[in-house]
Amino acid sequence: MQSTRAIGLSLNDPQRGHVALHVAREFAALPAGADGIGIAATVDRRVLISRRPSLPRDAALAPIVGPLKGRSAVIQIRHRDDVRPPRESPHNLGPFRSREFACAVTGGPADVDSAAALREQHLADLPDFLRRHITGESEAEAFFFKVLHRLHQSGQLDHPVGPDPDRVVDAIVAVHGDSGFARCVQVIGGQGLVHVALGAKNAVLLFDGLPLDEAEAIDPTLADSSIGRERLRRFRAAITLGFIDGSPDGDLPEGMRLLEQPQRVAVVIDRGLEPRARILD
Fold this sequence. Notes:
By secondary structure, the protein is α+β, with helices and mostly antiparallel strands.
């Protein structure tokens, strides 16, 4: 079994997204030290976020996530050993949002002082129209807003259909810079899902249909009608995994493909659910 701490989802049927996570449970489980989770989805250019700052010891990912509310979502899983701001607040648990964007940021500085100093660097020249939307004290949230600032500077932030995904990748890489730590960033909104791994083990899962028995194990009503079974057959999804621990064991479930990625890579999932990978220098 392998676990992951950052998940991005792009799918054609959000109400069955948690079934896909159940099918992928050997490849996308909660880490043993998971102690919080945040879930963000985009619906009609709005971002909906739910956060659970604590988790039961035996928690499983799929039941916690439940049916998703939008066709794009990001999930950020907090680990008990993560560096955190001195003040405990639900707003310090990602994903973070601004406008129609949501972003999960995992990894980062290894100690509180370094994180605080880097946060101040991110905020140093942030314009007020972005700064006033910051709600927490985490370096990760400030990183996200610094990425938005770079998109604003390049004229991409207010693009009618959203910024060019490649420009989003460039902004993430530029803000990360030559940092000596690993980071994984996943952004939804605009033209699709952007997944960037910077020194982190990561992968992409592709789904072409969902097994009936797996759906029944989650919710028997999902497969108790011809319409429900047809929706399971027509299900398609691309799921990005960041900060993976462990290795896949055994055969892949029916209808699922695993694409392991380099540790420095950007993957863009377009609205057709086709992943496009770009190796980062």
